[in-house]
Amino acid sequence: MGKVVVSQFISLDGVVEDPGGAEEFDRGGWAFKFDRGPEGDKFKLDEAMASEALLLGRVTYEGFAEAWPSRSGDFADKFNGMPKYVVSTTLKDPEWNNSTVIGGDVAEAVAELKQDLDGDILVNGSVQLVQTLVEHDLVDEYRLMVFPTVLGAGKRLFGETGDATALRLVDAKPAGETLILIYEPSAKDAENA
Predict the structure, then answer these.
(1) Average pLDDT over residues 189-193
(2) How many angstroms separate the CA atoms of 74 and 18, rounded?
(3) Total number of domains in the chain
(4) Which of 60, 90, 166, 189 could potentially form a cystine with 125 if both were Cys, beta carbons 3.0 to 4.6 Å apart?
């Protein structure tokens, strides 16, 4: 059975918008102002190599599809070769190889993916998609690389929700100037929240 893993670059105030600076957010590019060190680079490479598939929203998918096909190396080769699932109601014919569009019921499609795939289904960026996955209890793990910055504005990973969600910290480690925090949903704690 597959496991949905949400992996995000995130500011101290929870902003995940435009860490690379390609989306024209006036505060974009913030992730590259800090050194994540060799530990952070290894973490991201290991994460990609252990993943079975990518699950992305349309905007993140289009950014990745523009950037990764022209690159090479272990990380790029893995991203380019693995199956990719893009959630979109407007994208009909994705050009990045091994891409499939999910255009219908997202929760149902992702639940089926989890049944059909073994291994990690990696979600990067894709804030709207992540919030949908959270609403439907489909996230199995959160991997947050926390950057020492307060942006004060921007899309946040966790928006307004109908219910409180308890998480359990399963790992924490420094990576250069960042901190990697890994959480899993905690069903027992959520009942008491």
Answers:
(1) 44
(2) 24
(3) 1
(4) 60
